[in-house]
Amino acid sequence: MEAKCSDFIMKIWGAGTLLTIMMAMAVSDKSSRYAKLGTTIVLQCPPERYNLTVWKVNFNNGMHCHLSFKRENNTIARNCSMDMDWVSRPEEDSAVRIKSFQMSREGIYRCFIATAKGMLNHEYKVSLSVSPQVSLTHANGTAVCKAAAGKPAAGISWNPPGDSQNVTEILPNGTKTITSTYNVQNVNEDKLTCVISHPTGGMSLILTLPGRNEKKESSTMIILYSCLTGLLGIFGFSLSIYLWRFCRSKRKISATTNIETVSGQNVQENDVEPYATFVQVENVIYDKACNFSSG
């Protein structure tokens, strides 16, 4: 009886040792997955026909568990909770489903399958993803963009790029708050954008900087007034030249008219003078003839 027990123990130990060696020699792929709090996440094994499937989980809190299926006798072995179970029948699909994911479920999930090609392995680093609470404020020449209580920490950038500084705060529940400050004193744009990146989804917050629009409008009005003043000046100058030329031409015409009038008068006087002399001579002759007749 003792010999049989010893043989059984040796077989179990040998099988465990062989499985450990096979797992160590397995071809491994790695990836990361994020799950939102309370959601369901599905993890896949390599899509190969298998004789044996083993899921081994090492949680971040130090706990561990396993879930396995052996095709030879269709047996399932497990010590993981029922929150982690097969997606469908394990002889058809080696994928597992984790229900209502919690922070205590964070850890390394490894899938080992024994196939005709050998042992294959896929490793997942599964982390809880919590959407951050975002805000964007502006005071005293400084813009503050905050992504609070996110997991993992959010990334923050600015558009346009400028003088900014990021500070990270780790909260007791493992989430992180990122606070980014931005100096807006030397920004010429009228809008500032805080760009937040996170596995749960990115977003952009836009801040309209006060005084930028008024300054642009004031500059535009100054330019318009300057252009209008310049046009009026050009128009006034052109009008002055036109009036000067018009008055000058009027003066020339008036002077010419006066000259012609004086010349006309002289001509008339010259024409009348011989006639007057003739009349005077005729009157003298008439007077003498009258005196001769009387004598």
UniProtKB/TrEMBL annotation:
Gene Ontology process terms (BP): regulation of neuroinflammatory response
Keyword Membrane attached: yes
Compartments, as annotated in UniProt: Membrane
Keywords: Disulfide bond, Glycoprotein, Membrane, Receptor, Transmembrane, Transmembrane helix
Transmembrane segments: 222-244
GO cellular component terms given for this protein: external side of plasma membrane
PANTHER family: CELL SURFACE GLYCOPROTEIN CD200 RECEPTOR 2 (PTHR21462:SF2), CELL SURFACE GLYCOPROTEIN OX2 RECEPTOR PRECURSOR (PTHR21462)
The protein, known as: Cell surface glycoprotein CD200 receptor 1
Species whose genome carries this gene: Pantherophis guttatus
Organism ancestry: Eukaryota, Metazoa, Chordata, Craniata, Vertebrata
